[in-house]
Amino acid sequence: MNLQLDDLHVKFQHFSIDLFQNDLINWFQQEKRSLPWRENRDPYRIWVSEIMLQQTKVDTVIPYFHRFMERFPTIQALAKADEQDVLKAWEGLGYYSRARNLQTAVREVAQAYGGKVPDNVDELGKLKGVGPYTKGAILSIAYGIPQPAVDGNVMRVLSRILLITEDIAKPKARKIFEAAVEELISREDPSSFNQGLMELGALICTPKKPACMLCPVQEHCAAFQQGLQEELPIKSKGKKQKTMPYLSVIVENAQGEVLIEKRPEEGLLANLWQFPMADAAEVSVEQLAYWFKLEYGIQIELGETLQPVRHVFSHIIWEIIVLHAKTADATTEQGRFVSLSDINDYPLPVPHQKLLQQIHVPE
Ligand code: SF4
Question: Known Pfam families for this protein (predicted)?
């Protein structure tokens, strides 16, 4: 890493930092998209938007952000809210630990900091779910403090501009890019500088086929000058996702209610609700009714097979065979029968919403 940091200093000897800042910031001021979290500098709104934008596209986030802000407009409102309501507002966005961590951190801000989002590196960085990127984004955008906010987009853009060949899939790469931003960032307007880099990555310096001919910082870009823009960044492939087969049953009782259960408090999709699922590596369709009796204490009669559901998470893929079943039993300790009109009160992860859509189209 030291070698790369030394390399950086050599690169900056021939780099006009002032002109680069001006070109980037002027372009950002003129071309920035109008986004709801850019309406003001409220650190809470910026924080929520940055958490939502992790792993999720801007277009997807916008309606969620509006609904979330209507529901939980302040730190106090989110701190006081029931976790199930927060998960419900997050339903469909995925990576639900983001929502739980956000609420935990917001509660800490409400209690320890009188409801004011901290404006310093140490306090902000200790809050749950606030990593180096989010911390830098809040400090620079909300408080105008020159701190780097480096995510995959920013690493891609800077690897091209500065011809940095570090593998951006490796955790240690971030330090190199943070060091680069610390050199480059505008002290007068760190907010526009960081947002400008992010916006450039989103609109112009895209992963495939960057629009170099439209790029406001083309004359500063070493990769463009050498025709290497499509070779960078260097990014090694992660592990292949593991496929996990499941059997899931939509069990209906005589009142037309369906059985759902709450997932465990820890792990993937913690505390969300789902239709019962069996590991298909251990339970076959033929064994399903017997397994159900053991697990849920109710007798089911399997019916038709519905459409299978496939859902890709970051590290695993669920492949779910979906069956319909009837039961004469009305209760179970291992879950809850709910009517189709009430089921929308429960936060269901996307794969289970896909199951639900097969029996119930929401109004
Ligand atoms: Fe990215 Fe091309 Fe601009 Fe360089 S010139 S920063 S590669 S869009």
Answer: EndIII_4Fe-2S, HHH, HhH-GPD, NUDIX_4
- The alpha carbon of 48 is separated from its chain's Cα centroid by a whole number of angstroms, namely 11
205 lines ligand 1 (CB under 6 A): yes
Q: Which pair of structure tokens corresponds to residue 321? A: 């065979």
What residues contact residue 196 under an 8 Å CB cut-off, 6+ apart? 24, 25, 27, 28
CA-closest residue to ligand 1 atom 1: 205
| Contact predicate 121/139, CB 8 Å | yes
Q: Range of 46's domain?
A: 5-225
Same domain as 75, residue 185 = yes
Distance CA 268, CA 358 (A): 24
Whole-number Å distance, alpha carbon 40 to ligand 1 midpoint, is 29
Strand partners, 259: 337
- Given a cut of 50, the residues of the chain with pLDDT beneath it are 1-2
For the chain, helix (H) and strand (E) counts, in that order, are: 16, 8
In the set 31, 39, 50, 231, the catalytic residue is: 50
Specify whether the CB–CB gap between 261 and 276 falls below 8 A: yes
Sequence-separated (6 or more) residues with CB below 8 Å from residue 285: 247, 302, 321, 323
pLDDT single digits (tens) 24-57: 999 999 999 999 999 999 999 999 999 999 988 9
Cα 346 to Cα 342: distance, rounded to the nearest angstrom: 8
Atom of ligand 1 nearest to the CA of 210: 8
Closest atom of ligand 1 to 221 CA is: 4
Residue 10 CB coordination number (10 Å): 9
- Residue 94 pLDDT: 86
pLDDT at 1: 46
**Ligand 1 contact, 232 CB (< 6 A):** no
Tell me whether residue 333 is one of the annotated catalytic residues.
Answer: no
Neighbours of 323 (CB within 10 A): 20
C-alpha 314 to ligand 1 mean position (Å):
28
The residue out of 195, 225, 255 marking a domain boundary is: 225
The model's pTM is 0.82
Please report the pLDDT score of residue 10 as a whole number: 77
- d(CA 35, ligand 1 centre) in Å: 24
- Domain assignment present for 38: yes
- Smallest CA separation from ligand 1 atom 2, residue: 212
**CA 159 to ligand 1 center in whole angstroms:** 10
